[in-house]
Write a structure and sequence with these properties.
Shape: globular
CATH topology of the largest domain: Four Helix Bundle (Hemerythrin (Met), subunit A)
Number of strands: 0
Bound molecules: fe (ii) ion
CATH superfamily of the largest domain: nmb1532 protein domain like
Radius of gyration: 18 Å
Distance between the termini: 28 Å
CATH class of the largest domain: Mainly Alpha
CATH architecture of the largest domain: Up-down Bundle
Strand content: under 5%
Structural class: mainly alpha
Helix content: over 70%
């Protein structure tokens, strides 16, 4: 069986990585460490930005065409997005409280809200990668799905692109890394490409750095 284009594959791997990090860092947080609080602030803001970007690009570039073919499933996915937004707001509200007044009680609450978000969001992503993909594949060709992907990528600023790379690249297996970075290498000026590879060094293993430096 030929493998179909999975519009969700790469961003979902990146989001699982980023959310796992957020939960891990909140779980071990020393509330007296200003440095760790600042790390939580940067990480949670970045996770929140990626979640919003991802949700809006799905709404605009996946659900609009899907609704024409299968309004019921598109409406269901849209309703689920609204639920994810509410849970994300709840998670970010407690994390902002923690950043403003670090305290063990609020740290525990932020950890729990984050894990509740992860529980629901991982379920949501799994549904998209399975049930929703089956419906997408029954109505659209790989070329059409790649066109959606192209539109999504073309709307990202260079900073947003790099934020995605930071979480996606370490979460991919080597073949996927060559697909993603190979495409980027073809389309970006050489100094931008080399700068990006170098910038990724702190976020990946030595072995991964060695591999992606030779793509
Ligand atoms: Fe989604």
């Amino acid at each position: 069986m030929n493998q179909r284009v999975n519009i969700y594959g790469f961003p979902h791997k990146g989001l699982r990585n980023a959310l796992g990090k957020l939960s891990f860092n909140l779980g071990k947080l020393d509330v007296s460490s200003e440095e760790q609080i600042q790390e939580i602030k940067l990480l949670s803001n970045e996770v929140s930005e990626l979640l919003k970007l991802h949700l809006h690009s799905e709404e605009k570039h996946v659900l609009v065409p899907l609704k024409e073919k299968d309004p019921k499933i598109a409406d269901h996915n849209h309703e689920d997005h609204l639920k994810m937004e509410r849970l994300e707001d709840q998670m970010m509200f407690s994390i902002h409280q923690l950043i403003d007044s670090p305290d063990i009680g609020i740290a525990i609450k932020s950890y729990q809200e984050t894990n509740l978000f992860i529980r629901e969001y991982f379920r949501h992503m799994d549904e998209e990668e399975n049930e929703i993909n089956e419906i997408i594949w029954s109505h659209f060709s790989d070329e059409e799905i790649l066109e959606w992907q192209g539109k999504i990528l073309s709307e990202l600023t260079p900073d947003q692109f790099f934020s995605w790379f930071k979480y996606i690249i370490p979460a991919l297996h080597p073949l996927e890394q060559s697909i993603m970075l190979g495409g980027f290498k073809q389309n970006a000026p050489d100094e931008v490409y080399q700068g990006t590879i170098h910038g990724l060094k702190p976020f990946i293993t030595e072995q991964q750095f060695e591999y992606i430096s030779n793509i």
